[in-house]
Design goal:
Layout: E1 6-12, H1 18-29, E2 34-40, H2 49-57, E3 83-86, H3 89-92, E4 104-107, H4 120-142, H5 151-163
Parallel strand pairs: 1-2, 1-3, 3-4
């Protein structure tokens, strides 16, 4: 029996770093069981170079990513979403569009590595830390018995992951 394919959208404000990194991690770790997307409420239009460097250091894909507005996932023709995760506090506080598919949502806030000022090493370390946190949360998500949990239990587990 084939496992269902789940669509996951990671949201941030600029869609330049955290949400892009989460998309890359889920694409790599899900073994085709999930389709990963990312978007921003106020997309910058540019993927942050240090996000791509962090992905490269972890041997994750770095091509094909683009910063895009979340409206792409709210209109007709958008894929039905099963899960929507906000990965920054600012986007979590905004009024989101109505997503097709009535997805389960959770907040997985991660400090913004693009906001770190300082040496190149400090900035790279901030991106690596954000990527590590996102990777761990996605690993926990992928280990949930999705088909055995009702929506309420699943929502509780997903919220707990965001606090880990």
């Amino acid at each position: 029996m084939n496992e269902p394919l789940y669509n996951v959208l990671f949201l941030c404000t600029g869609n330049s770093a955290r949400s892009i990194m989460a998309e890359a991690v889920l694409k790599r770790l899900s073994h085709g069981r999930f389709q990963a997307f990312s978007a921003g409420s106020h997309a910058t239009g540019v993927v942050h170079p240090l996000a791509l460097q962090a992905l490269e250091r972890m041997k994750l894909p770095t091509t094909g990513f683009r910063s895009k507005n979340w409206d792409e996932f709210a209109g007709s023709g958008a894929p039905p979403l099963h899960f929507v995760f906000t990965v920054c506090d600012k986007a979590a506080g905004e009024v989101c569009p109505v997503w097709p598919g009535q997805p389960i949502t959770a907040h997985w806030g991660v400090e913004d590595p693009a906001a770190v000022v300082g040496s190149d090493e400090a900035r790279q370390a901030a991106f690596s830390t954000a990527l590590r946190i996102l990777t761990r949360r996605i690993e926990l998500f992928l280990n949930l018995p999705l088909e055995k949990l009702d929506n309420l239990a699943l929502k509780e587990r997903l919220s707990a992951i965001g606090k880990s």
